[in-house]
Amino acid sequence: IIILWLGPLYVALLGVALQIKSFHELMVIGHSKYSSLELPWYRVLNWYFLGVANYFFFGESLTSYFRNLFSEENYLNKLANYHRFISYWFYLGGFIAFVLSLKKKKYSALIPLL
Fold first, then answer.
1. In terms of C-beta density within 10 A (0-12 exposed, 13-18 middle, 19 or more buried), how is residue 70 classed?
2. Distance in angstroms (rounded) separating the CA atoms of residues 79 and 69
3. How distant is the alpha carbon of residue 6 from its chain centre?
4. Which SS3 state, helix, strand or coil, does residue 35 take?
């Protein structure tokens, strides 16, 4: 209840903290399941995609909410205007990293992770 009194910023930060902690627990469970397969970049790519998803969704909200502030700063204005384009390239880079990390004879275990 105290966090609700602090305002929407702290509620959003609590949501992100809960999301990261929940994702960490899922990674611990997933690592115990897939550790015998010795998958390369398993944890790194999963955390990367979590960061990209958060960048996309929170960036969408922040750019619409702080549009006036972003128009004053040149670099923030470019980030706001090209936010979806930047998010797309982040996602595409993660997908390319995933494809490059594929190993023969482990495709059946790796494809469901996509």
1. buried
2. 12
3. 26
4. helix
pLDDT tens digit sequence for 36-83 = 777 778 788 889 999 999 999 888 887 777 777 767 777 777 777 888
Place of tokens 């549009």: 67
Please report, to the nearest 10 degrees, the dihedral formed by the alpha carbons of residues 18, 20, 21, 22 taken in order. 80
What is the distance between the alpha carbons of residues 23 and 19, in angstroms, rounded to a whole number?
Answer: 6
- Amino acid identity, position 30: G
SS3 39: coil
Looking at this protein, which amino acid is placed at residue 97? A
Output the pTM of the full model.
0.78
Number of H helices, E strands in the chain: 7, 0
